[in-house]
Amino acid sequence: MTTLKARLKDDLTTAMKARDELRSSTLRLTLTAVAKEEVAGTTARELSDDEVLKVIAKEAKKRREAAEAFEKGGRAESAARELAEGEILDAYLPKQLSDDELAAIVAAAVEEARAAGAEGPRAMGAVMKIVNPKVAGLADGGRVAAAVKKLLAG
Fold first, then answer.
1. Per the confidence metrics, is the pTM higher than 0.70?
2. Among 97, 22, 92, 80, which residue's Cα sits nearest to residue 56?
3. C-alpha angle 88-91-92 in degrees, rounded to nearest 5
4. Please, which residues have CB within 8 angstroms of residue 80's CB and are 6 or more apart in sequence?
5. Considering just the CA atoms, what is the radius of gyration of the chain in Å?
6. What is the pLDDT averaged over residues 99-126?
């Protein structure tokens, strides 16, 4: 089975041959981010697919945030490009949870935390500890926190 990093490289080659500037620059930047992550720390190493996914998710999030900033600054063209880059990266990420799926996971976690005696403001941390491993890579942290807050507020 090919690794995610190898798939990114293959797709970059394909995009370059097709003269797809947007896709090739997006993949090139992402592979650079992966390479940078591989040499971060004390020893250089090959990232696992899960670690590469985290890098891609971080890059996709950067694109969404940049698009918002450009949108607010009245630079629609730049915002559109950032969103297009984000969509290219989203294709490599696992399908995101729907709001209903996320709400169900959060509801179960709230029950679990309450059963363990977590109440009030402290419950937020306890619930997040239960939810995060279950939704890692499947939902944006901000979405998860909002869902938890909403449910705890009742």
1. yes
2. 92
3. 105
4. 67
5. 19
6. 81
